[in-house]
Design goal:
- The protein contains eight helices and eleven strands.
- By secondary structure, it is α+β, with helices and mostly antiparallel strands.
- Strand 4 (about 185-200) and strand 5 (about 200-205) form a beta hairpin.
- Helix 1 (about 5-25) packs antiparallel against helix 2 (about 30-85).
- The longest helix has about 110 residues, at about 390-495.
- The protein is rod-shaped, with a radius of gyration of 58 Å.
- Residues about 150-155 and about 155-160 have low confidence and may be disordered.
């Protein structure tokens, strides 16, 4: 029993004792009727006190229960508020809470346009030299990333319309079954397609560019497709670990290295292992370091600065006009928002308050610093976002160029092999000729030796003949002189013996 209850019971007991004492003393002077009336009055008053005490006791109990329940209700309301919105005094957005997560989901939904999951393929035809590839498929009745609207009672059923018209351009992904229970998810990019015929939810499409071999394989192998009205946008926070929040040193949250490594398991399977490891490591490092302090070798396009505003700064963030994202994206040439769904409620320029911190690219940070609006802080590595529509087209162009280069290199290799073969044959022929020439040379050397020997003998013989001829010439000359001399002597004798005649 509480102290208040004990005091009440003590007061009642004291009052009873006092009443008995006073009644005994007054009984002699009062009459019987007065005594009975006084006793009845006291009993009534005492009974009233009992009821008042009971009511007070119940009221105290009820008050305690009320206070306890009120505290619980207040705690539950605070808990619900925390789960819905998070800590309103915390400037960091907590994406584990319902409202921020819903807002982020709505933003993603708006940025990707409409999405149809589980489109059933009816027919598909690969390209021929004279006709492009075509596909006919059935869209689901509901758009995957828009809420289901409740039917209006008594309203007539509206005709089913996909909202896609002829010449609309969409992006198709082949779906695969995910083993972790997520069901069919878009995995394989089939390409950019243009709508050629619309019959309610039955669409006929053809690719805007010829499909690659990999796309043709996925084109014929996937039974269900995902249709994107807009190519999904790249995001800095898409690779952050679940539950991580933005903080200095992790501007976009802590990057989930395991998820990033898993995402890069298959894209480079066709690359040789030694080159695959280098490329994967370099690209993964850009995703892992996204939002962290910039390393020394950071390229200029990825170097940003954390700045703190030292005075209010006014900036226009919304374009004056408006247009659909299908007509040219979400921003104009100055980077201002053109989609009315994503514009601010006020037409006034946005104001960045003094004391707030943000990250800006190097050029913007330098300009704001020179104008005296900010103080520059630490450098931050910010991964350049990918334009997936351009990236897929560029990848396809590079793939075609790589194939062309491969064909050229293959042809040149064949030409080189042919030339090498001819060269080897000529080399073999040259070696055979050289071998024959060496044999001929050896034979020639032998013949030269023989000729030299014969020549030497002939020279000796010639020398001997010359000597002999010289001797013969000398003897002939001497005989000639003797003959002349004898002829002269005979002439003298004849002339002397002949008679002299006179004419």
């Amino acid at each position: 029993m509480e102290i208040s209850g004990m005091l009440i019971w003590a007061t009642v007991l004291v009052s009873l004792i006092v009443f008995i004492v006073l009644l005994v003393k007054a009984f002699k002077s009062w009459g019987v009727v007065h005594t009975i009336l006084l006793t009845v009055l006291f009993i009534e008053a005492w009974t009233f006190l009992f009821f008042v005490g009971g009511v007070a006791h119940q009221r105290i109990a009820y008050t305690k229960d009320h206070d306890t329940l009120a505290e619980k209700v207040d705690g539950l309301l605070k808990s619900v508020e925390m789960e819905m919105n998070g800590d309103r005094l915390d400037p960091k957005l907590n994406l584990e809470k319902f409202s921020p997560l819903s807002n982020e989901l709505n933003r993603i939904i708006l940025e990707r346009g409409r999405v149809w999951r589980g489109a059933q393929v009816q027919t598909r035809t690969l390209a021929t030299p004279n006709t492009p590839a075509t596909a006919v498929f059935q869209l689901p009745a509901l758009v995957s990333n828009q809420p289901i609207t409740a039917p209006v009672p008594g309203a007539a059923a509206a005709a089913i319309d996909s909202g896609l018209a002829v010449d609309s351009v969409v992006y198709l992904f082949g779906e695969e079954l995910e083993p972790n229970g997520m069901g069919l998810i878009p995995k394989i990019y089939l390409g950019e397609f243009v709508v050629t015929e619309v019959k309610e939810l039955m669409l006929t499409m053809r690719p805007t560019t010829p499909l690659t071999k990999a796309q043709e394989t996925a084109f014929t192998g996937s039974e269900t497709w995902t249709v994107f009205e807009l190519m999904p946008l790249d995001s800095h926070t898409a690779f952050a670990a679940a539950g991580s929040s933005s903080e200095e040193g992790a501007e976009f949250g802590r990057m989930d290295e395991k998820m990033i490594a898993k995402d890069f398991e298959t894209p480079f399977n066709a690359i040789p292992e030694e080159l695959k490891a280098k490329i994967t490591q370099k690209i993964m490092q850009a995703y892992v370091n996204d939002g962290a302090r910039a390393p020394d070798e950071t390229p200029p396009e990825a170097l940003w600065y954390r700045v703190k505003f030292v005075k209010d700064y006014t900036v226009d963030v919304d374009a004056k006009g408006g247009r659909s994202p299908l007509e040219g994206g979400y921003h104009d040439t100055q980077g201002n928002m053109t989609d009315a769904r994503l514009k601010r409620d006020s037409d006034a320029p946005a104001v960045i308050k003094t004391g707030t911190s943000h990250i800006f690219d190097e050029g913007t940070a330098n300009q704001l610093s020179s104008e005296g609006f900010v103080e520059r802080g630490a450098t931050v590595f910010v991964r350049p976002l990918n334009d997936y529509a351009f990236a897929f087209r560029e990848t396809r162009r590079m793939e075609i160029k790589a194939k062309q280069d491969t064909m050229l290199v293959t042809r040149e290799n064949k030409e080189m092999e042919r030339s090498t073969k001819v060269t080897n044959e000529q080399e073999l022929y040259g070696e055979e000729v050289a071998t024959k020439l060496r044999l001929d040379k050896a034979q020639y050397e032998k013949e030269v030796e023989v000729i030299a020997s014969v020549s030497s003998d002939l020279e000796t013989q010639i020398s001997d003949k010359k000597v002999e001829l010289s001797q013969l010439y000398g003897s002939i000359h001497a005989l000639h002189d003797r003959l002349v001399k004898h002829q002269q002597e005979m002439a003298s004798i004849v002339n002397a013996a002949a008679p002299t005649s006179t004419p």
